[in-house]
Amino acid sequence: MSKGLFIVLLFLHYQLSASDSLNPKQTVIVDGFVEKQITPSLPVTTYSIKSLNIAQTNQISTLLTNVSGIYLRDYGGAGAMKTISLHGGSGNQAAILLNGFKLYENANGGFNLNKLLTQSISSISIIESGFSTLVGSNAMSGGVMMNANANTDGKILLGLSQSSFNGFEGLASFTSQIGNYRNSFFLNGTISKNDFPVTTKIYSKDTTFNRMNNEFNQFSITNVLENYTKNADDFKQKLYLNYVNSYSGVPGAILQGGEVNQTSFLNENQILLISNFENNNLNFMIGGKYSQMTYFDENTLTASNSYNNYLNTNLQTRLNYNLKLFEKEFKFSTEANFDIFNGLLSQINTIETKKRYTFAIGFVRDIELENNLKVYLSSRADFISDFKREFSANFGLTKNYNDLFLSFNFGRNFRFPAFNEMYYFNFGNLNIQPENSLNINSEIKYSITDKLMIQSNVYSNFINNKILSIPRNAISWTTQNIDNNITYGIDIKLHYIENNIKSTISYCYLNAQNSSSNDYFKGKQLPYTNNHQVNASIIYNLNYIDAQLIYSFIGERYSDLNNSSNLKLSPVNLINLNLSTNKTLLEKYTISLSLNNLLNQQYEMILNFPMPNFNYRFNFGASL
Question: Which long-range contacts does 363-366 make (Cβ < 8 Å, 24+ apart)?
Fold first, then answer.
């Protein structure tokens, strides 16, 4: 698909969608796809956790594999690093927010979704467009907003699961209520040897062995305290506290000689505290995150590389408030962040401390015109201590018919380099520059019948100074800027609901190319971006059992800028089946079984980091 044809398609998509030839019918309401207008002109889909979590999983990353349009960059197995990619962007280009607090990790890039407990979160919103005017850096390709709430299913929740490759997991939750205050306390523990079999060529001969040094152990404590009121003018309060400790082996890549790291491990500690106050006109968030990451390898030759300890402290505060100026309603926001990063730094090869201060101010103005046409204007200025200031702006349009919703969005977004991209030992690049983009989105949502809804999003991103992680060789990576990059694509989703059946099927086309005029790799597909992706999910509620069948297809991807055929990842076909008893059979108890990778395909999401073949998870839960 040529760039010129795509721009014409983008224009026609909006023009044809806005025609009056469609016959409006009653708006369909799809359970689990309740639209939450974070910014109405942005393409946003909100999922309830209950609608996604038939498998009763405890990890948010597992749930996101079932969401169309998301490419999960997984380094393999239970405890491996997992970040999301939206529209070809990296994990750092997708903002992850929990109760308004932006989650990121300066020591290793994008936030690892393994650290969040599913049961403490009530909903997930996927934003499939840049929205820097709302949250600043890290929101170039879109993002994920999560809402944490106290548990409402029962006073006591218990869960015990056993999974393939010597995996065990336990969960306990206790909820109490006094007046308008509800408090939920969660304990979660996971252990897994994660020694799944791998077949690879070693010296031209197929060899099968179990993944070594891949064990994962994690323990977490989460507490959510909230008060609730029906009066919109009264203040609502919420306090979220989370502590996570994890210990995992770091097996590294699998090469001709077998596994690279057999004696290295990673130990991580994280404390996260978020406090929210809000009413009808004001929302205030203040929070902090402290994390420690220690990497150790007893076989490393030099002492400076054998034991690396990284400390990161992040403090954030954000205030959103409504204000009337010149008889016009405005929504203003202010934000301040402070980061401290300590560890072994790139090129300098010494332990140092880096600091970063950020302050931002922005506004949103909603203008309602005739015939259900609305205009959304927003702008924001970000001031950062170690780079020049950045401005972001957004112009949006929405149009509502009876059963038809149209939106158009144009915005400028940006991202500052993370500390790990600049300073991380044997990876960082001190010359890396901020990246910025122009995003265009056009979306339609149309209820064909009261049971069937179609959703389409056409987008194009023009990115300058895109930051990429590029392999130096099979086991070593670094960061660099690409002068120009054009990403464009289309997402089409079909939702159907009838009685006991809920289904969604989606197709995503993505083209992400290096368009730098003086670059040897001009016209090449960017690493780890796939042209085609298909997701399908059907949920069938039987008398006593809920069943969910999930199919995913991910097209071939290149792992290098040169698009080398020997470094190309093969297409992936995955089929997963989730079965769970419902309250009709056992009112207070739940038994669930997950069968993953039913085709037993050996595949990789990251080159030389194999994923598990066929595996299962059995779970027993009680709500008392």
Answer: 363/330, 363/331, 363/332, 363/333, 364/39, 364/133, 364/134, 364/330, 364/331, 364/333, 365/328, 365/329, 365/330, 365/331, 366/329, 366/331
CA distance 363 to 315: 22
Q: Map residue 587 onto helix, strand or coil.
A: coil
> pLDDT grade, residue 410 (50/70/90)?
very high
* pLDDT at residue number 359: 96
What is the separation of C-alpha 316 from the centre of its chain, rounded to a whole number of angstroms? 20
pLDDT tens-digit series, residues 483-498: 888 889 999 999 998 8
Both structure tokens of 18? 């806005």
Model confidence at 348, pLDDT cuts 50, 70, 90, reads: low
Please give the share of the chain, as a percent, with pLDDT higher than 90.
34
Judged against a pLDDT cut of 80, whether residue 538 lies above it is answered with yes
Residue 91 DSSP label: G
Give the H or E element holding residue 78. Answer: none
pLDDT tens digit string along 71-101? 788 888 777 778 888 887 877 888 899 998 9
Structure tokens at 149: 């709430």
Q: What is the rounded distance in angstroms from the CA atom of residue 4 to the CA atom of residue 521?
A: 21
Measure Cα distances from 621 to 110, 166, 549 in Å.
32, 20, 21
Distance between CA atoms of 608 and 569, rounded to whole angstroms?
Answer: 9
Residue-level pLDDT at 507: 93
Q: Cα-flanking dihedrals φ and ψ of residue 229, to 5°?
A: -150, 150
Q: Which residues pair with 4 in a beta bridge?
A: none
Backbone φ and ψ for 5, nearest 5 degrees, come out as -65, -40
Per-residue tokens: 479: 């960061």
> Nearest 5 degrees, angle CA 524-CA 85-CA 555?
55
Is pLDDT at 412 greater than 90 in this prediction?
A: yes
Q: How far apart are CA 92 and CA 85, in angstroms?
A: 9
Provide CB contacts within 8 A for 184, sequence distance 6+.
Answer: 120, 150, 151, 173, 174, 175, 223, 224
**pLDDT tens-digit readout, 569-599:** 999 999 999 999 988 788 889 999 999 999 9
For β-strands 142-148 and 94-98, DSSP reports them as parallel
Tell the residue number behind the tokens 């505060």, with chain if given.
317
Closest CA to 222 of 313, 152, 150: 150
Selection from 54, 68, 140, 57 nearest residue 415 by Cα: 140
The CA distance from 72 to 92, in Å, is 13
- DSSP 8-state secondary structure symbol assigned to residue 114: G
Percent pLDDT > 70 in the chain is 86
Instruction: Provide the strand spans (E) within 130-281.
Output: 142-148, 156-163, 167-178, 181-192, 197-202, 205-210, 216-227, 236-249, 254-255, 258-259, 264-278
Neighbouring C-beta atoms of residue 181, cutoff 10 Å: 13
Mean pLDDT value across the chain:
82
Question: Within a 10 A sphere around the Cβ of 598, how many other Cβ atoms?
Answer: 14
Alpha carbon 416 to chain centroid, angstroms: 18
**497/464 Cα distance (integer angstroms):** 42
